[in-house]
Amino acid sequence: METKRTIIVTVLNEHGVLSRISGLFAGRGYNIESLTVAPLLESNLSRISIVTKGDERVLEQILKQLHKLIPVLKVLEDEQINELESLLVKFSSSENIADLNAIFSAYNGKVLEVNEKNAIFMACDTPNRIESLLKAIKAYRPKDITRSGTLAIETN
C-alpha cells in the first residue's frame, strides 16, 4: 500500500547536494511530489523538505540511502515534523469576491490584490486543508493556481 511521507533532510549547504539527493530518487525510480530547500539561519546548512510516495519497503530504502549520502547530517520523518503549504490562486474579477474571501479566510487565507481583470488570493495551511480548499473553490473557475510545495519543520 502506497503512503505519502514527508522527510526533512539537513545537509551541508554546498554545490551539488540537491542534485545528489534528487539523483538518488531518480536513479531508483522514486518520485518526488514536493521539494523545498532553504538555508538555515547563520549556518552553513540547508533544510530540504521532500514529500514522496511509496510502500513501506520503498520508503525504508529511501531513508537508508539518504543517510548514506556524505553531505546529509540529519534525516527526520512525519512523526517529528509540522507541515504547511502555501497557495496563490487567480480568479476573474467577475467572480464573487466576497464569497471567495469568506472561503479563503477559513483556510488562513486572504485577498492579495483585486484589479479590473483579476482577483488574487493566498492561503497557508496544512497540505490536507489546502487540498480541501482547492475542492471548495473549483466552482469559481480559478484562472491559475500556484502551490509552494510542503514546508516542514522539526517539532522537537
Automatic annotation (TrEMBL):
UniProt-listed GO biological process terms: isoleucine biosynthetic process; L-valine biosynthetic process
Amino-acid biosynthesis recorded as keyword: yes
Keywords per UniProt: Amino-acid biosynthesis, Branched-chain amino acid biosynthesis, Transferase
EC number: 2.2.1.6
Matching InterPro entries: Acetalactate_synth_ssu, Acetolactate_synth/TF_NikR_C, Acetolactate_synth_ssu_C, ACT-like_dom_sf, ACT_dom, AHAS_ACT, AHAS_small-like_ACT
Gene3D superfamilies in alphabetical order: 3.30.70.260, ACT-like. Chain A, domain 2 (3.30.70.1150)
Broadest EC class assigned to this enzyme: transferase
Catalytic activities: 2 pyruvate + H(+) = (2S)-2-acetolactate + CO2
Pathway annotation from the record: Amino-acid biosynthesis; L-isoleucine biosynthesis; L-isoleucine from 2-oxobutanoate: step 1/4; Amino-acid biosynthesis; L-valine biosynthesis; L-valine from pyruvate: step 1/4
All residue ranges annotated as the ACT domain in the record: 6-80
Function per UniProt: Catalyzes the conversion of 2 pyruvate molecules into acetolactate in the first common step of the biosynthetic pathway of the branched-amino acids such as leucine, isoleucine, and valine.
Subunit structure: Dimer of large and small chains.
Entry-linked NCBIfam families: acolac_sm, PRK11895.1
PANTHER family the UniProt entry points to: ACETOLACTATE SYNTHASE SMALL SUBUNIT, ACETOLACTATE SYNTHASE SMALL SUBUNIT 1, CHLOROPLASTIC
Family statement drawn from the similarity comment of this UniProt entry: Belongs to the acetolactate synthase small subunit family.
Protein name: Acetolactate synthase small subunit
